[in-house]
Fold:
Amino acid sequence: MKKYPKEDIYVGWEPEKCTHSANCVRGLPSVFKPKEKPWIKIDNASKEAIIAQVAKCPSGALSIHRD
Ligand code: SF4
Structure:
């Protein structure tokens, strides 16, 4: 799992689980930029906004973890 730290949490990313629904890209385009590297721009939104968006990932490819 790739980890993207933000304050006291990190976003986990497991690409093999992604079903390409694009919920993340549509819901929070400032953070989820699939054409860029790294594709998650963790500094571009609040922790709360990122947690809320990750909760809408239908596949579990994105997940929230507490350090
Ligand atoms: S919301 Fe989840 S399943 Fe959909 S594209 Fe983003 S990471 Fe993949």
The first helix runs from residue 23 to 27. Residues 18-24, 57-59, 61-62 surround iron/sulfur cluster (CB under 6 Å).
